[in-house]
Write a structure and sequence with these properties.
Elements: H1 21-33, H2 36-43, H3 47-61, E1 66-69, E2 72-75, H4 77-101, E3 108-114, H5 123-133, E4 137-141, H6 149-155, E5 160-163, H7 171-174, E6 178-193, H8 206-211, E7 214-217, H9 221-232, E8 241-244, H10 247-255, E9 260-264, H11 265-268, E10 277-280, E11 287-296, H12 300-310
Parallel strand pairs: 3-4, 3-5, 7-8, 7-9
Antiparallel strand pairs: 1-2, 5-11, 6-9, 6-10, 6-11
Helix pairs in contact: 1-2, 1-4, 2-3, 4-12
Keywords: DNA-binding, Transcription, Transcription regulation
InterPro entries: LysR_HTH_N (IPR000847), LysR_subst-bd (IPR005119), WH-like_DNA-bd_sf (IPR036388), WH_DNA-bd_sf (IPR036390)
Domain HTH lysR-type: 19-76
Length: 322
């Protein structure tokens, strides 16, 4: 009598993860907002609910994820590792859901621009990974609209914009429906020569910055206002500024000991291998600049997929500052 082959064994399922999806969403919101109040607003829950959820997540993972600082909350080393992987996990899950629901969906073309050139330091390379993770989303960089992304968004010349300081007009002012969401943040760090008098300091104070000079790239008035407000609050001290149009000039001026350079972590990282420059943080904690994603409501589906992928794409320099 012929043997009936046994059915194939089901795939092995490992131990159930302790962390839950809401834990991943929470740490990403906290990282982007930099405070429990900001995360509460983004997640549409109360600040106390954010604090409870964070305590529960830390209990589940068995490690402290965020430290409270004078400026809000800052991720610990364990928190940074979780933040780095959380966006990718959520992006893969969301994309799997879309694959199951619409396996033969057509390719969608998205024109994307960044308000600040610093994002272009990593975004083109990240697009290679994005294309693999989002095979039916064609992303095109519209760099020519960097100088005024909001106006381009209103006109329909682009579909999605990554913003730092620009504000969106109301739907009535724009003549179309625009949406914005918090996305991630980059850290503004301070780069000095190894021969600088402050080189031996573990961190820098506001008084150190007041003494200047500060070496900066050319920035828009809105970016300059954000920096002064984020660092000095309502105070507006007079600071000697050295402005250069090129990043290389900013870095070389810092290397020459002419002052303290202020750069995005994304940009600073490329110049730290020579051993003649150091990266410092403020003593009050990391200075994070929030980024938002804005898009036309007609592009919501594509933007949602892009949000999930971008959350885990931005590089980090946290562990190298100090």
């Amino acid at each position: 009598m012929p043997r009936i082959p046994s059915p194939p064994a089901p795939p092995a399922i490992g131990p159930r993860p302790r962390l839950e999806i809401r834990d991943l969403e929470l740490v990403l919101s906290l990282a982007a907002a930099g405070s429990t109040a900001g995360a509460a607003s983004a997640m549409h829950i109360t600040q106390s609910a954010v604090s409870r959820a964070l305590a529960q997540a830390e209990d589940r993972v068995g490690a402290r994820l965020f430290e409270r600082t004078a400026r809000g909350v800052a991720p610990t080393a364990a928190g940074e590792r979780l933040i780095a992987g959380a966006g990718l996990v959520l992006a893969q899950l969301r994309e799997l859901e879309r694959e199951v629901a619409a396996p033969v969906a057509a390719t969608t073309r998205v024109r994307l621009v960044c308000e600040c050139y610093t994002a272009y330091r990593w975004l083109p390379s990240a697009m290679t990974s994005l294309r693999r993770r989002l095979p039916r989303l064609e992303i095109v960089l519209a760099v020519e609209h960097t100088h005024d992304p909001v106006a381009a968004l209103v006109r329909g010349d682009i579909d999605v914009a990554l913003l730092t300081t620009s504000s969106l007009p109301t739907d009535r002012e724009a003549g179309c429906a625009l949406v914005e969401r918090p996305l991630f943040s980059d850290e503004v760090v301070f780069v000095i020569s190894t021969s600088h008098p402050l080189a031996g300091r573990a961190s820098l104070t506001r008084d150190h910055l007041r003494e200047g000079p500060l070496i900066t790239p050319n920035a828009t008035p809105a970016e300059a206002r954000w920096f002064m407000s984020a660092v000095f609050g309502r105070q507006r001290p007079k600071i000697e500024l050295l402005r250069f149009p090129l990043t290389e000039a900013v870095v070389d001026a810092a290397r020459a000991g002419m002052g303290i350079a202020t750069l995005s972590e994304w940009v600073a990282e490329a110049y730290l291998g020579g051993g003649d420059l150091l990266v410092k943080r403020l003593s009050s904690g990391p200075l994070r600049r929030p980024w938002r994603i804005a898009f036309r409501r007609a592009s919501t589906d594509a933007a949602e997929r892009l949000i999930a992928a971008l959350e885990s794409s931005a590089p980090r320099l946290y562990t190298r500052a100090g």
